[in-house]
């Protein structure tokens, strides 16, 4: 492949006599010393063959037939064609001709004449000298003459034309000769002359060598060029050009590559792109490793920038002498067309294990290959992430990579391109990188700010509409840093960047659309944070005064624009509070915000006299009471919620109440060294809410719709007020900054626990009201209405709209169903409700509605109330069930104010650390801790990557988890591990103990927190204990799957240490010859596994525990299932850890001692799964025959059936031989299951050993066995196919065929079950999976007669069944559900 492309000139054309003479001025002949006889003889010889040498009008005249001319001249001068007697004469004639030509060209004018084109030819290259060079008898003589003439013309002025440069004319005559008589001699002579040529002529000759020498004597050429390159490195480009164009064999090619590699360290930066392009394009599979390694080792990429790169001040202009940019371009273009280069680079970098082995060029190679696009992008991402995680690529290396390359325009262009990606993680990473660049190289980036702020071309501003709030912060941080750097610069052009940014932000803030207004608010407050920082103001005071004035004006503009939008004002307060929590602003700004917050008291507070309201008026016909007064009669104020909620003109004030208080508490903490003593009265002050009498059934029904809305809104605002109180005052306990005394700390702790109890009560009561009277609550969280629509908002809208649409279409659906009832009754799949009716159970309306949401009973232990009559009588208050989860309220949970991570410190309060399970104080606080545990679970759900989410996730919140960062949450949960362990132990102990506290005691406990003394507060203790256990298990599983726990070793070790048993019985792990030492990671993993396995075993004991709730056994099954999932996660984590340890041990040639850890835990996992499947989860000791239909988790709802499938899959995968176990279950166990409900037999009266296999779960078992069997077959087929390709022994293939025989037995047995099974669903699955099995079997080319025979016989039955199913479905107008009738293959 050529390095520099050169066009080969066309072959010589025959002359034309009619051609006009070229306009070449020949000087007048002068009298010079020549030999007349020799010249005359040479002239005569030329005349005889048709050439006129003495042409007074120009160069010699050549005949029209040049081929005849050269042929005749060759005949005259060649001794080979003469007779033996005439050879001496011919030799003498040739000598005379050569001597005459030599004498003739001694004159410079004559030399120019013979080198110039003939007047009778059309081709300007057909001169007399060119034609004489093609006459073989005299070619060598002419070559030597011309070469000897070269030194006489070395001093030609550079830049003259070819006609005036005799030396270049001579060299041009040597190119593209048809033949060379003596190439070796000519090459030696040419190399001798080349060594003394000036640089410009030397480059010309070297570049022309492939056209002069051709394929002759390449060895001498390469040797000479190597020597020449050692003497003068300035000729490296033409030398590389010649190396590329010469037809070198493998040995000479390697020699040329060696020469090029030796120049990497010494070559000038401007020539480096040519050298790299030559090396990379010369790569072959044999030398690619050598080339890549030498480039990585010798290329010093940092610090090669040209001085002019930093002197260019024109915005957006690229410097002309861009050496580094040329190098990057050369690398990228070469890598694009050579796949072996990319593969070798990836292989080379993958083998590096230490940070010192990585170089700056390595990072750039990865970037350039990634920029070239597919198909290796994923490989590059994988290796880059791996090396960053392994700390091989460190931040210092990336700094060198950027610091050594000052041409930021290329970097910015690539970053802006990635900013437009649809992947939010990619956008976030790019913006973080851009922020890091601006922080370190703000001044250098100012000339290229047009690529960022949108003055020219595509910029970040073009993509703002699709950004999340988090990414908007990063974008405006970049803008603000540039503006701050521009203001510090004296350049008027650069300072205009700040003005442009201000203009953009003001336009966005003033926009009527909330989306753009939010963008402007983020931008405005980011500018305030950057320019108004008290610790980083410019040195000159005039700039400081100007900045303060402009910032205050921007703040006033932002507040005024938010007056008509409460959500915008909420966002302004939240963003400002976030800024103040991180830095101190200038005094003028703090004074302005203090004046603005002075309106809080007049807006939201009311005065009290002796603990009572001075004005007890009516608000929209509603009376009010003081709720939740923690300070008693000494409280001077109350929160005036009812008055504001009932006033239509001021109801909006309550919407901004939480965010306004957040900013108030932040300013208070900032100005008082972290203390909130100045506003501590707000923590205990009462709330003015509607009277509790309206929550009686009769009073509620008598209220108007507007009054019901006021009641719901009052409770809603009260709950969010308490949430912000918890956020603010929990910092007094959590931060440990010594800002409060010990007595004050105790008082704050007590009030926080009471406020949490208030919050639990308010949300439970609000849940009832929202269920009874659905309404859309106002949004108090500005980020819920982000650019990507919140999923909770869709659920809310769908739920509010479904009621009317269902009522509208109910009559139409009933008519349609009655029309086809006779046909559908025979074909319809029996439902769960049919099973209940058949068993004689009476179903209430609420139970029927709840069938659509089967997960709710597992959360609150009761069904949703559809009316007041379902909850209580007319004279009683609404039932407040604790804990209670309402789907109507959960659908709007995203509108609530979030609890910050610092609130989780309440889990570590002193009372929690007591392990006395009989302590009534702890039992009374357990619902409070359950609330916080559920909130922690929701936060962790948002952090776990989607690929690692567990399939069974109940009660989790929406995607946004509040205004805090991951680092804040991780730092908070580090101290929660021991408390989580204690909560779990106590909850399990209370479940086993089974003691009950009277409901009166529970009501008294809630009344002590200032809650209204309502008689219908119902606390389900068993439900609370069970949910505490489940929430702790959820949190542990989420934390174990967080990427931060995988990378942070100390974090993972602390988590494992917190969940260790009191003692690990070594006898439970007999597979270890040497049990791990205490404190090691292996020991901790074993301890965690045994801890949760022990909980799973305890679950078998309290599985029989029952109370008034009909779902107690269902909770036990859920708890056991969660324990099993955690055991599986522990085994997976151990596998990853052992894999890393084994890899390191193999490198050190020191095998680990605990290779049996994973198989041992895997076997125990299979045993635990088997115990769950063999356990009988229905209480047979009770006399209630209908109890099984109420408590059996496999009859009530589908999620438990899916759990059984998961347990069965774990059981199969963890068994020693999955094929044998599949064969046993499919051929022996499954046929014994009770499949027909028409026999009237009891489901419990089964002949097999798996009570979890019943009529309700048969479908799940059947599907799981099919899927696992198909997976084993596909694996076996791949193994057999690979062994066939590798020509392995037939014994191994026969062994695999025996295993395939087992899969055949399984599929045949499963398909044959259709003969005795009446369910269409089972027939459909047999068609689906049976067809897939046959496809996989045939694609694997398994030519085994017995196996094929069995498959064909079973498939024939399946095909027959498929026809019957199609005929059955053809009579229906409405198709069945997709999950009921699987599609045929």
TrEMBL record:
Keyword Iron among record annotations: no
Residue span of region Disordered: 1-36, 781-868, 1361-1385
Major location category of this protein: nucleus
One family name in Pfam for this protein: FancD2
Keyword Ubl conjugation: yes
Record localization: Nucleus
GO MF annotation: an example: DNA polymerase binding
Alphabetical keyword list: Isopeptide bond, Nucleus, Ubl conjugation
One GO term (biological process): homologous chromosome pairing at meiosis
Segments of skewed composition (Polar residues): 843-865
One Gene Ontology term, aspect cellular component: nucleus
Biased composition (Basic and acidic residues): 782-806
Similarity remark: Belongs to the Fanconi anemia protein FANCD2 family.
Protein name: Fanconi anemia group D2 protein
Originating organism: Arabidopsis lyrata subsp. lyrata
């Amino acid at each position: 492949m050529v390095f520099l492309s050169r066009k080969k000139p066309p072959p010589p054309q025959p002359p034309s006599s009619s051609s006009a003479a070229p306009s070449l001025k020949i000087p007048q002949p002068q009298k010079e010393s020549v030999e007349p006889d020799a010249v005359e003889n040479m002239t005569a010889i030329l005349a005889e063959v048709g050439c006129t040498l003495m042409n007074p009008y120009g160069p010699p005249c050549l005949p029209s037939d040049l081929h005849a001319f050269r042929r005749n001249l060759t005949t005259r001068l060649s001794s080979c064609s003469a007779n033996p007697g005439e050879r001496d004469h011919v030799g003498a004639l040739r000598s005379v001709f050569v001597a005459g030509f030599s004498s003739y060209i001694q004159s410079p004018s004559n030399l120019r004449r013979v080198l110039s084109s003939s007047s009778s030819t059309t081709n300007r290259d057909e001169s007399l000298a060119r034609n004489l060079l093609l006459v073989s008898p005299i070619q060598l003589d002419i070559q030597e003459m011309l070469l000897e003439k070269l030194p006489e013309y070395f001093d030609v002025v550079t830049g003259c034309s070819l006609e005036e440069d005799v030396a270049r004319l001579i060299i041009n005559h040597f190119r593209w000769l048809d033949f060379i008589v003596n190439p070796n001699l000519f090459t030696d002579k040419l190399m001798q002359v080349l060594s003394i040529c000036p640089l410009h002529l030397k480059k010309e000759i070297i570049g022309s060598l492939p056209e002069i020498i051709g394929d002759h004597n390449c060895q001498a050429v390469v040797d000479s060029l190597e020597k020449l390159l050692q003497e003068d490195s300035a000729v490296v480009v033409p030398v590389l050009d010649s190396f590329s164009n010469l037809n070198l064999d493998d040995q000479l090619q390697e020699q040329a590559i060696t020469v090029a590699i030796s120049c990497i360290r010494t070559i000038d930066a401007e020539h480096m792109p040519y050298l790299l392009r030559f090396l990379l394009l010369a790569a072959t599979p044999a030398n690619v490793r050598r080339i890549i390694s030498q480039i990585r080792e010798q290329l010093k990429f940092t610090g090669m920038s040209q001085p002019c790169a930093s002197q260019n001040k024109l915005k957006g202009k690229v410097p002309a002498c861009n050496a580094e940019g040329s190098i990057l371009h050369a690398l990228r273009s070469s890598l694009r067309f050579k796949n072996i280069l990319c593969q070798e680079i990836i292989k080379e970098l993958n083998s590096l294990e230490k940070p010192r082995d990585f170089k700056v060029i390595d990072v750039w190679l990865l970037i350039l290959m990634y920029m070239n696009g597919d198909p290796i992008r994923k490989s590059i991402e994988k290796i880059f992430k791996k090396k960053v995680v392994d700390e091989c690529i460190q931040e210092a290396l990336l700094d060198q990579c950027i610091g050594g390359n000052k041409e930021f325009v290329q970097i910015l262009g690539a970053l802006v391109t990635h900013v437009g990606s649809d992947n939010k993680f990619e956008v976030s990473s790019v913006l973080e990188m851009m922020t890091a660049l601006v922080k370190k190289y703000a001044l250098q980036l100012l000339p290229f700010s047009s690529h960022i702020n949108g003055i020219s071309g595509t910029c970040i501003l073009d993509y703002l509409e699709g950004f999340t709030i988090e990414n908007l912060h990063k974008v405006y941080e970049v803008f603000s840093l540039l503006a701050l750097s521009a203001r510090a610069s004296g350049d008027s052009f650069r300072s205009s960047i700040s003005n442009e940014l201000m203009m953009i932000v003001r336009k966005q803030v003033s926009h009527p659309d909330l989306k753009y207004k939010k963008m402007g608010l983020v931008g405005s407050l980011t500018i305030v944070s950057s320019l108004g920082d008290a610790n980083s103001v410019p040195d000159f005071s005039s700039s400081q005064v100007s900045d303060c004035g402009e910032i205050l004006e921007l703040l006033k503009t932002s507040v005024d624009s938010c007056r008509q939008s409460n959500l915008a004002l909420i966002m302004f307060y939240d963003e400002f509070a976030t800024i103040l929590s991180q830095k101190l602003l200038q005094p003028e700004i703090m004074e302005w915000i203090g004046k603005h917050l002075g309106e809080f008291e007049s807006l939201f507070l009311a005065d009290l006299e002796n603990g009572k309201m001075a004005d007890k008026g009516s608000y929209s016909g509603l009376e009010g009471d003081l709720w939740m007064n923690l300070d008693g009669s000494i409280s001077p104020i109350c929160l005036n919620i009812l008055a504001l909620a009932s006033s239509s003109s001021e109801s909006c004030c309550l919407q901004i109440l939480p965010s306004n208080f957040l900013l108030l508490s932040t300013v208070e903490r900032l100005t008082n060294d972290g203390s909130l003593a100045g506003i501590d009265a707000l923590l205990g002050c009462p709330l003015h809410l509607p009277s509790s009498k309206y929550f009686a059934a009769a009073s509620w029904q008598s209220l108007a719709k507007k009054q019901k809305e006021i009641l719901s809104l009052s409770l809603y605002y009260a709950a969010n007020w308490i949430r912000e109180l918890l956020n603010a005052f929990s910092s007094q306990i959590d931060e440990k900054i010594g800002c409060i005394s010990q007595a004050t700390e105790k008082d704050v702790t007590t009030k926080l626990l009471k406020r949490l109890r208030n919050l639990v009560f308010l949300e439970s009561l609000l849940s009832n009201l929202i269920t009874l009277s659905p309404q859309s609550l106002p949004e108090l969280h500005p980020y819920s209405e982000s650019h990507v629509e919140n999923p909770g908002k869709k659920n809310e809208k769908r739920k509010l709209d479904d009621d009317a649409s269902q009522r509208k279409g109910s009559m139409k659906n009933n008519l349609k169903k009655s029309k086809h009832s006779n046909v559908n009754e025979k074909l319809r799949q029996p439902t769960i409700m049919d099973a209940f009716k058949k068993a004689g159970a009476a179903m209430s309306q609420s139970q029927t509605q709840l069938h659509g949401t089967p997960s709710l009973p597992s959360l609150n232990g009761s069904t949703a109330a559809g009316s007041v009559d379902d909850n209580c009588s007319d004279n009683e208050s609404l039932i407040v069930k604790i804990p209670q989860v309402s789907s109507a309220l959960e659908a709007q949970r995203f509108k609530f104010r979030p609890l910050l991570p610092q609130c989780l410190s309440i889990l570590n309060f002193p009372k929690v650390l007591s392990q006395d399970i009989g302590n009534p104080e702890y039992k009374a606080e357990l619902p409070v801790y359950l609330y916080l545990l559920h909130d922690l679970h929701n936060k962790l759900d948002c952090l776990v990557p989607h690929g690692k989410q567990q399939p069974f996730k109940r009660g989790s919140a929406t995607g946004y988890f509040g205004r805090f960062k991951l680092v804040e949450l991780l730092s908070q949960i580090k101290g929660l591990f021991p408390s989580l362990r204690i909560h779990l132990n106590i909850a399990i102990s209370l479940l086993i103990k089974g003691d009950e506290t009277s409901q009166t005691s529970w009501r008294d406990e809630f009344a002590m927190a200032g809650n209204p003394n309502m008689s219908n507060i119902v606390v389900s203790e068993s439900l609370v204990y069970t949910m505490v256990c489940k929430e702790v298990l959820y949190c542990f599983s989420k934390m174990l799957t967080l990427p931060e726990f995988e990378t942070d070793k100390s974090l993972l070790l602390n988590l494992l240490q917190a969940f260790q048993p009191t003692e690990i019985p070594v006898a439970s792990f007999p597979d270890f010859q040497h049990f791990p030492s205490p404190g090691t990671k292996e020991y901790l993993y074993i301890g965690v596994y045994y801890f949760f396995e022990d909980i799973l075993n305890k679950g078998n004991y309290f599985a029989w525990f029952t109370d008034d709730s009909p779902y107690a056994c269902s909770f036990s099954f859920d708890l056991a299932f969660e324990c099993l999932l955690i055991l599986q996660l522990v085994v997976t984590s151990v596998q990853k850890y052992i894999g890393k340890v084994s890899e390191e041990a193999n490198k050190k040639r020191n095998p680990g001692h605990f290779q049996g850890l994973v198989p041992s835990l895997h076997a125990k996992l299979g045993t635990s799964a088997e115990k769950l499947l063999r356990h009988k989860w229905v209480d047979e000791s009770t006399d209630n025959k209908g109890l099984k239909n109420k408590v059996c988790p496999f009859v009530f709802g589908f999620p438990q059936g899916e759990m059984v499938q998961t347990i069965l899959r774990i059981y199969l995968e963890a068994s020693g031989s999955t094929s044998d176990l599949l064969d046993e279950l499919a051929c022996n166990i499954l046929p014994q299951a009770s499949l027909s409900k028409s026999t009237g037999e009891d489901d419990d009266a089964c002949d097999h050993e798996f009570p979890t296999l019943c009529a309700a779960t048969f479908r799940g078992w059947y599907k799981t066995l099919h899927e696992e069997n198909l997976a084993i077959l596909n694996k076996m087929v791949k193994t057999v196919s690979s062994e066939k390709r590798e020509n392995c022994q037939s014994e191994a293939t026969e062994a695999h065929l025996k295993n395939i025989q087992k899969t055949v037995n399984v599929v045949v047995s499963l398909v044959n079950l259709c003969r005795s099974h009446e369910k269409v669903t089972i027939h459909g699955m047999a068609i689906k999976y049976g067809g897939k099995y046959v496809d996989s079997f045939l694609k694997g080319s398994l030519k085994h007669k017995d196996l094929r025979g069995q498959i064909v016989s079973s498939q024939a039955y399946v095909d027959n069944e498929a026809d019957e199913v199609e005929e059955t479905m053809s009579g229906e107008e409405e198709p069945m559900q997709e999950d009921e009738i699987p599609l045929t293959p």
